[in-house]
Design goal:
The chain is 21% helix and 29% strand. It is of the alpha/beta class and 380 residues long. The chain has two domains: 8-274, Alpha-Beta Complex (Spore Coat Polysaccharide Biosynthesis Protein SpsA, Chain A), CATH 3.90.550; 291-374, Hexapeptide repeat proteins (UDP N-Acetylglucosamine Acyltransferase, domain 1), CATH 2.160.10. Helix 2 (66-72) links the parallel strand 4 (56-60) and strand 5 (86-90). It starts with 7 loop residues before the first strand and ends in a 6-residue tail after the last strand. 45% of the residues are buried.
């Protein structure tokens, strides 16, 4: 791991954009959604922070966080077991009204005392809905060099149609940036524009003392969202700089995007782009290597450890412990951990959650435009 103290602490908001994939977050949160064979979404942003020398990281959870805690444990796989700093999972706070926080302002207000006690000069904030190998060191360096109050990362790309059409638009806001000479002149909320946009990645860098001041003032006024309620009204008075990220991103914004972003990783150039230049760490599960039993056929697949393949598999992502029985045919599928495809079954365009069983002889098919999703522990 890269050991260059970044003089920054990290804060991750793992529940952001849960509403865009309700099927996947019924018992987990966005950050713990399985991705790319053996990883969880949180692994990418967490590893990126660690690789850039950020070793004091807080994850402020809202709900459904048991699977995340199970995955992260003490933080050993990310080298975050330490006396000072390390990994800090903050449970949801509740006011007298027992109202769990909604936006970043309320979330950060719950850890103000913690922030005041820290020594790092900068705070790096991020959601966990984007799988990315992010260079935080370059962003911090750019922030310092520009003299910015706040720096925001963005990707120049088209807005996903599912985000534009989302019915939960007031629950999970998205932002595009107007930029002039590197400075953000306008923060557009839920823009419905076509073509290439400066699409915010919701990754921010700010001085810790300024953030404390902002959150304290905003919370008193009952504000909820950091971007909408703090940055937007002050966009002309604060020096908000834009940092363009040109690397590979996989943004999860609905079930179709989840399916597509997994399938894209079957192309070597995409896989290499996501997993370089720095390593991505994850929870280690001691499994045997994937076994291909005599008669098995496999073409263009990604298979994690512990899989047993006796049937035919093509264009598919297999998570740990997936079993495909003799005579079974699997095409264009994303099969999560410990899925079992029974003898003679035929499945196409399928997303199975953990511990799903497709019974022998069953024929289950979705389509390219609408993959069929099977909930955790279901038997079909």
């Amino acid at each position: 791991m890269v050991n260059s103290n970044a003089n920054a602490l990290g804060i991750i908001f793992p529940n952001s954009y849960d509403s865009l994939v309700p099927e996947l977050v019924s018992e987990r949160l966005m950050a713990s959604i399985p991705f790319a064979g053996r990883y969880r979404m949180v692994d990418f942003i967490l590893s990126s922070m660690v690789n850039c020398g950020i070793d004091n990281i807080s994850i402020i959870v809202r709900k459904n966080y048991r699977s995340l805690m199970d995955h992260l444990g003490s933080g050993r796989e990310w080298d975050l077991v330490r006396k000072n700093g390390g990994l800090n999972i903050v449970p949801p706070f509740a006011e007298k009204t027992v109202k769990v926080f909604n936006g970043r302002v309320e979330a950060l207000a719950s850890i103000l005392d913690f922030l005041m006690d820290q020594k790092e000069k900068y705070v790096v904030m991020s959601d966990a809905n984007i799988a990315v190998n992010f260079d935080f060191k370059s962003m911090i360096d750019a922030h310092i060099a520009s003299g910015a109050d706040v720096t925001v990362a963005y990707k120049a790309e088209e807005l996903p149609r599912s985000v534009i059409d989302s019915k939960n638009i007031h629950q999970d806001l998205y932002y595009t940036l107007d930029i002039k000479d590197g400075r953000v002149t306008e923060l557009n909320i839920n823009e419905k524009a076509d073509g290439i946009q400066n699409y915010s990645m919701n990754i921010y860098i700010i001085e810790r003392t300024l953030l404390i001041e902002q959150i304290r003032n905003a919370y008193v006024h009952g504000y909820v969202y950091y971007e909408r309620d703090i940055l937007t009204p002050q966009i002309q008075t604060l020096n908000v700089q834009a940092f363009e990220f040109k690397g590979y991103t996989a943004r999860i914004c609905d079930m179709k995007a989840y399916f597509d972003e997994n399938m894209k990783l079957l192309k070597d150039e995409n896989l290499d782009a996501l997993f370089s230049p720095n390593p991505i760490y994850t929870k280690i599960r001691d499994d045997n290597p994937t076994r291909y039993i005599e008669g098995a056929k496999a073409k263009n697949i990604m298979a994690a450890d512990g899989c047993v393949i006796e049937g035919e598999v093509e264009n598919s992502i297999l998570f740990r412990g997936v079993k495909i029985a003799k005579g079974a045919v699997v095409k264009n599928c994303v099969l999560m951990q410990d899925t079992v495809i029974g003898e003679g079954a035929h499945v196409e365009y399928l997303i199975t959650d953990k511990n799903v069983t497709i019974s022998a002889g069953k024929d289950v098919k979705g389509s390219d435009t609408y993959p069929f999703y099977v909930f955790k522990y279901q038997v079909i």
